[in-house]
């Protein structure tokens, strides 16, 4: 299934679409950061230096030049906080080598700095310019990100990345080695059930944002929100077996999502 990329192409008006895509390209490029080969400490030091360059409007090396110039241009043109670009750079350590989160608080901190910062940039571009809505934006961004990573769990494990808190594995009695074997074990399925619940709860915390967005953006958010929930339901119906092939929504499911997003208002009542 395609990467979950809400607000990449639509529903931006023509004048804002290039900026939204530039911010998305920055965010996605940081998942493949250009960092020197070396120990973890050197990698983090390099990223901190890159953070300062972003803040000081200097040239950066962590992403290709065309990408950082476009992202910086979007931020300058639309008066967006440059610190939200920098926060994503600081969090990009996750995409270099092994990534583990000891507990839920550590995972939430990463999600706020990486997915949340990206979401706040898009939200401000859409006209939500205050910090009052940041918790809802962060929750939505976390929900979309966690849903996407569940779809790609086998790929992340192969890359030695795990976006599940280690304390969850310990409580479930699941080792990383057991998780790598797939969803045939009841303990693994219970662990993945909790991750679906975590993603769904994050999406639920952010749904009130629909009432704050201008109408064109609210319609798009309803669609992406429903689509993410349908992905989670599909994972549940597969008994959490994300190893047997890509998680793909059928044409019928996509039509259902489109219909519910357009005509159902129950899930989005204030």
Tell me the overall shape. Answer: globular
**End-to-end gap:** 31 Å
Radius of gyration: 19 Å
**What are the low-pLDDT stretches, counting only 5+ consecutive residues below 50?**
none
List the helices and strands and how they pair.
Elements: H1 17-29, H2 40-55, H3 65-78, H4 83-91, H5 104-125, H6 134-151, H7 153-158, H8 166-172, H9 176-180, H10 186-206, H11 215-237, H12 251-263
Molecular structure report:
The protein has 270 residues and is mostly helical. It has 12 helices and no strands. Helix 1 packs across helix 3 and helix 2 packs antiparallel against helix 4. The longest helix has 23 residues. The radius of gyration is 19 Å and the shape is globular.
Keywords:
mainly alpha; single chain; 12 helices; 270 residues
Summarize the structure.
This protein is mostly helical. It has helices at 17-29, 40-55, 65-78, 83-91, 104-125, 134-151, 153-158, 166-172, 176-180, 186-206, 215-237, 251-263.
């Amino acid at each position: 299934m395609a990467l979950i990329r809400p607000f990449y192409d639509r529903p931006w008006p023509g004048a804002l679409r290039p900026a939204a895509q530039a911010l998305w390209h920055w965010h996605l490029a940081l998942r493949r950061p250009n960092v020197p080969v070396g120990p973890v400490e050197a990698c983090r030091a390099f990223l901190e230096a890159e953070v300062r360059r972003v803040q000081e409007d200097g040239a950066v090396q962590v992403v290709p030049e065309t990408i950082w110039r476009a992202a910086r241009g979007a931020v300058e043109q639309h008066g967006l906080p440059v610190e939200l670009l920098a926060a994503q750079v600081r969090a990009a350590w996750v995409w270099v080598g092994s990534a583990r989160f000891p507990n839920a608080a550590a995972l939430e901190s990463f999600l706020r700095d990486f997915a949340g910062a990206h979401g706040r940039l898009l939200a401000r571009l859409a006209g939500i310019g205050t910090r009052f809505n940041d918790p809802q934006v962060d929750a939505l961004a976390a929900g979309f990100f966690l849903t996407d990573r569940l779809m790609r769990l086998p790929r992340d494990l192969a890359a030695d990345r795990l976006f599940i808190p280690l304390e969850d594995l310990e409580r479930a009695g699941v080792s990383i080695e057991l998780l790598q074997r797939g969803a045939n074990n009841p303990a693994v399925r219970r662990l993945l059930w909790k991750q679906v619940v975590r993603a769904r709860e994050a999406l639920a915390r952010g749904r009130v944002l629909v009432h704050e967005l201008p109408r064109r953006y609210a319609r798009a958010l309803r669609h992406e929100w429903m689509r993410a929930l349908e992905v989670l339901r599909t994972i549940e119906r597969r008994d959490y077996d994300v190893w047997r092939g890509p998680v793909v929504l059928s044409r019928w499911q996509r039509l259902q999502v489109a219909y519910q997003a357009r005509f159902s208002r129950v899930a989005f009542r204030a």
